[in-house]
Amino acid sequence: MNFRKGCLPVTEFRKRYQDRERFIGYCQECPRYDTVWSCPPLDFNVDEYLDRFTWVNVVGAKVVLSAKVIDEADTAEKVKTVGWEIVSAVKLELEEKMRQLEKQVPGSVSLSSGGCNLCKECSRKEGKPCRMPEKMRYSLDAFGFDLSAITKDMLGIDILWCKDRLPEYFTLIHGLLSAEEMPEAAWDTTGWIFDVT
Ligand code: SF4
Fold first, then answer.
1. pLDDT tens, residue order, the chain (197 aa)
2. For the chain, what are the domain ranges?
3. Among protein residues, the one whose CA lies closest to atom 8 of ligand 1
4. How far is the CA of 124 from the centre of ligand 1 (A)?
């Protein structure tokens, strides 16, 4: 796995990549829509939330799969299960790294990729509050951002999707919203190893 990062002012990031109608529309087709607290519909004012921050730092993890792993997932069920296991494990690792990064940048908050998978079943399904609000982070998707364009433009990676086979690699993209520009040294403390794009 290797990482890439990029940074933009929040206003510019929103202008370039946010299209709520289009991307929340895709979320509405997902079976997890309105069943997980990290996902849409978000229960707060998105503009007010984002307006608290000046910068968005994005981090992408590129997870390259071996030919053996790809070949062994030779049924639709295996593609789904193996893909989910790989992505879920990397997502949990990235979320932890981003929470560590938050500690280096006062007032910052991280954003995750896809729906929260900290619990087996999200409490939203029962109409109950999130069980771990201190750990749960909203997904970038939930704000209506164009993840494919962000990943391509800011990280130089084309997102590949699972079809009838596992893709050559998965890409997970997370973000850190901050009021101040993030000091470069903050990255070092989390043990990231970055690829040069
Ligand atoms: S921490 Fe649990 S309850 Fe909260 S959003 Fe994640 S899965 Fe749902």
1. 788 889 999 999 999 999 999 999 999 999 999 999 999 999 999 999 999 999 999 999 999 999 999 999 999 999 999 999 999 999 999 999 999 999 999 999 999 998 999 999 999 999 999 999 999 999 999 999 999 999 999 999 999 988 889 999 999 999 999 999 888 888 776 667 777 55
2. 2-179
3. 122
4. 8
Measuring from each residue's beta carbon to the nearest atom of ligand 1, which residues come in under 6 Å? Answer: 36-38, 116, 118-119, 122-124, 130-132, 136
Which residue of 136, 137, 138, 139 sits with most ligand 1 atoms within 8 Å of its CB, as the best mutation to test the pocket? 136
User: How far is residue 86 from each of residues 74, 78, 145, measured CA to CA in Å?
Assistant: 16, 12, 23
Compute, in angstroms, the gap from residue 22 CA to the centroid of ligand 1.
25
In angstroms, rounded to a whole number, what is the distance separating the alpha carbons of residues 125 and 129? 10
Distance between Cα 197 and ligand 1 center (Å): 34
What is the identity of the amino acid at 23? Answer: F
Handedness of CA 166, 167, 168, 172 (dihedral sign): negative
Half-sphere exposure of 48 (CA within 13 A, CB side): 4
pTM of the model: 0.92
Mutate to test the pocket of ligand 1, among 34, 117, 122 (most ligand atoms within 8 A of CB): 122
The C-alpha atoms of residue 142 and residue 137 are separated, in whole angstroms, by: 11
